[in-house]
Queue: 2 jobs
Job 1
Amino acid sequence: MAASQAPEAPEAPDPIVFVLFGATGDLARRLVLPSFFRLALEGLLPAEWRLIGSGRRRKTDDEFRDDVHAALEEFGSTRPADGPWHAFSARLRFAGGGFTADDPGDLLDRIGEARDEIGADARLVHYLGLPPQTFADYTRAIGAHGVAEGARVVYEKPFGTSLEGFRALDEVVHDVLDESQVFRIDHFLGKEATQELRALRFANGLFGSSWDRHHVAAVQIDVPETLDVRDRAQFYDSTGAALDMLVTHLFQVAAEVAMEPPASLDADDVSEARAEAVRAFRPLTRDEVVRGQFDGYRDIPDVAADSTTETFVAARLWIDSERWRGVPFLLRTGKRMAASHQKVNLVFRDPEDCPLPEGGLPHRGNVLCFDLAGDGALALSMNVKTPGATMELGTAWTQIPLDSLSGGDPLPPYTRLIHDVLLGDRALFTRPDGLEDVWIAAADVLDDHRQPEPYEPGSWGPKDAQRLAEPVGWVLPG
Ligand SMILES: NC(=O)C1=CN([C@@H]2O[C@H](COP(=O)(O)OP(=O)(O)OC[C@H]3O[C@@H](n4cnc5c(N)ncnc54)[C@H](OP(=O)(O)O)[C@@H]3O)[C@@H](O)[C@H]2O)C=CC1
Ligand SMILES: O=C1O[C@H](COP(=O)(O)O)[C@@H](O)[C@H](O)[C@H]1O
């Protein structure tokens, strides 16, 4: 499969001191550190950089290097031995003793040393890979110790946990930082296939002209997971599927599908278009949401015996825009389900002037699918004549794995997004106005603490979730 133009050489970022708060945590080990190593491997880091891990306990630089080595062995797509490990590890530092507004621990000293080594004007990037409840305190500390100036600050998701929490955090953040310094990460926006949503729509008349309620019967953003929550039960029980996935990743992808064509693909125009789309989300109501909890969830250590946390959620979202009026956006995600997928399906309407007898078309025969998992893929199903003597129709799928495109080098989402931070490109990050509307649209669901409906592990969730998708029905399991 050929991709047309030769890719432009990526820009080289300025020298940086990358401060990784939460460097001992799950996210840092599984995603951030392996992504940083991948950037080194791809030659996408600046010529001069230092990474300083920050934590509350003290450890030596060598102990931290051993931890990073172990994380790369366990989670990296490239093993340390297969990459530039020695040059990489020599640039790792650790600053213990925590970091609060009253006490910076060892961090200021380590930043000073790093700047002595690579230049006083090396830019600071603070990556808050921390529990979301701590974001405000760490932001205040960044301000209090004078390390905000010229810095970029990356916030993990969720940015707030409610409308009030979001507003309070937003105020603290804007007391300390200018909006242009803030990078709120949602890694689903960094997935290659999510970015194909724009390419397919805006670069192909066939799809661009069909991207509306006249042609699309339903949009489905479907992210079932077989994954358990046993490894992060404490985090999960205080979070749940609605906050962890629905109002973060699934909402942002819905906004990518729903947005009006931006004036350009520049960061400001794209973020504006996405924020505008979220503004048109009609607030979800409980009768259009199904919450589920898999059987056995409450027996997991660290889960409350009477927990009402949902491990599954499905929602029918309406978007009050001229383009999407009357088209259901069906969103579904859950843990311990029958299969793992990350699909965006646009189900097209049957043609109006079809000369075939009623019921002559295969059900859901025309679906455009963006597969967000892994390196990503595009797929299209069409109604076609089954070769043979009679005019019988069947459904055929065609698929384009993105890694099959020549010249392509799919980057994992965290790698792509961290590289964007280093370059200062905010196009794939969320904006506060877009997020405020997220919390408004999600308020009723996040406030729902009734007992969720039970479902069997290994199933497709509660039966009521099937009802939500009628009359089109879920494309998955398909
Ligand atoms: N884990 C994942 O798969 C994903 C996580 N995220 C987000 O990333 C962020 C971090 O998640 P994750 O790494 O799983 O979280 P962890 O629970 O593993 O916490 C990360 C680290 O934060 C540090 N920390 C600093 N202050 C506190 C505090 N007051 N209370 C608790 N810990 C503190 C701890 O390090 P120390 O003790 O050394 O100070 C801890 O190791 C969250 O916002 C999460 O939503 C997003 C996508 C995926
Ligand atoms: O942010 C999260 O995302 C993962 C799924 O994303 P993946 O692309 O890394 O598979 C999800 O399992 C997790 O619960 C959530 O916190």
Job 2
Amino acid sequence: MPALISVETAVERIKTHLPDWGEESVDLEQVRSGILAEPITADRAYPAAHRIMMDGIALAWESYNHDQRAFKILGTIAAGEPKRTLTDPLACYEIMTGAVLPDGCDVVIPYEDIQISSEGELRIAEIVHDQAWQRMANIHPQGSDFNLSEVLLRPGVVLNGPAWGILASVGKAQVIIKRLPRIQITATGQELIPVHQPPQPHQVRISNPYALKASLISHGFPDVDLDYVADDPELMTAHFQQQTVNYDLLIYCGGVSKGKFDYLPTVWSQAGVKNYIHGVAQRPGKPLWFGVDHMHQTAVFGLPGNPVSSLVCLHRYILQQRPMFAQLTTDFEFTKPLTYFLPVQSHVSSDARILATPHPMKNSGDFMALAPTDGFVELPADRAIFKAGESFPFFPW
Ligand SMILES: Nc1nc2c(c(=O)[nH]1)N[C@H]1C(S)=C(S)[C@@H](COP(=O)(O)OP(=O)(O)OC[C@H]3O[C@@H](n4cnc5c(N)ncnc54)[C@H](O)[C@@H]3O)O[C@H]1N2
Ligand code: MOO
Ligand SMILES: [Mg+2]
């Protein structure tokens, strides 16, 4: 293993060398998570016409302003009808939320403030609660949200609920997004057995791939397959050569440290993968390996096999989460010159601070210690004492 690099250098190298997996067009009907890859502009003014905001009556504000309070009702206008015209300023239309304001009208009085009476065919709306309405009250003016061609969403935004609603509103039936990587997670290790088999004392059930896949899915990477390869350089080489063609991101766990059976770094190098990281000054996760098979545009991560190490490395380096900040609730000490990823249980205080209670694990194989936690904080390498009340980057699971 070469000299250890810092967490910041590792993050920078990944950012620099991670392949660009291009773009793809998705159908609006396939709504899913993703990153927008094109600018989205307003296809017309929003709203496209003066839009009614309250069910009630539409009339000429000048008449109201001249103290007229009773208006003959000429008809009823629903949302979805083309624009009408009020020619008699002493009259009004009943009108519904979402309808287009008729020409000749410039105020809407809600039903709550009027009374309607009938004399034969004639129907009269009388304003009974006067709220000193201004011109255009209860009307959402044309173009008051956005003008034609204004940029609504920029490339790079995360497609969340509001974004998909905007895409639908502007008629984007097809949208260009960043292509998500096809991901395979491969477990390695002679000691591993499938989950449904009873383990002997020298065996452990394969658990890392399930934890990693769950985190990938919950952070917007749905396309994840699982696999296993034995600790055998020939099998590992064959596995890599086959899978680098099928996937964009190959995540292996285990087999990247200094052991006699940690073959993967050699296997990858001999298969032409350019190595950018092997060893980061951090705990857990020190033996982290990262490289790129430039011929196939495949990113290759070797996550250290200890379960807490692989999960922390996935979150810190592959998911590229933007951290929040959280305050420690108790003092914590870690004296080695390594960045320390400390599992924490978080909660939000009544004054809107995220509080992080440390749940240190005994070692990086102690996966069960993560049960009460919901993420980890990153404690810098150049300090040993971390005080209650201090804030640090917080990465939720
Ligand atoms: N001489 C040294 N030894 C070790 C060093 C070192 O710097 N010098 N680093 C240690 C650290 S730190 C870690 S972390 C581990 C990482 O080792 P590997 O990536 O080679 O992982 P393995 O040896 O294959 O496994 C380690 C441990 O994790 C368990 N494991 C692996 N895969 C799974 C899985 N899919 N599900 C559940 N558990 C898994 C495995 O059984 C081992 O117990 O190396 C240290 N050694
Ligand atoms: O860093 Mo290893 O990940 O301590 O167990
Ligand atoms: Mg090992």
